[in-house]
Amino acid sequence: MKFEDQLRDQRRKAGLSQEELAEKVGVTRQTVSKWETGQAVPELMKGKILADLFGLTYDRLVENDVTTDNPDWEQLSDQIDWTSAWTKKYPILQDYQHMTKARMLSQEVADLYDRVGKELGLSDLDTFLVVKDMVYQYYRTHRKPAEK
């Protein structure tokens, strides 16, 4: 079931109007309408609020859209501004963008991304996943014990 269908079904099961749901989530009725018609998707934190409201996990709320071979998930994921979604919890995601040195390093990361994709013959998505995993593996093995 697509996210928008699941959302509409869960809202109706809860006996809520779009306006009532919007009030509980902190958005407008028009936003809920856009979610239910597939014209927009909620940012991650709003999605979590929706899932909690319906007594579901986030994964369960988006159910079939979470599979990697489902094009709807890729489209949904592309529509989410992940930096904005995580900035409230991790302000550094917004702050670093204004650092001069970070802009220079960002170009180096972009060059590495291009190199990994080209040398390994990967698609853009696979390149992103591999580079992300490389960074995560480094982080996991090099972080200080207090951070674990």
Automatic annotation (TrEMBL):
Name the coiled-coil region(s). Answer: none
- Record key words, sorted: DNA-binding
Q: What's the superkingdom here?
A: Bacteria
Query: SUPFAM superfamilies recorded for this chain?
Result: lambda repressor-like DNA-binding domains
SMART domains, alphabetized: HTH_XRE
Q: Offer an example of a GO molecular function term for this protein.
A: DNA binding
Pfam families referenced in this protein's UniProt entry, alphabetically: HTH_3
Q: Which residues form the HTH cro/C1-type domain?
A: 7-61
Signal sequence region: none
State the protein's name.
Helix-turn-helix domain-containing protein
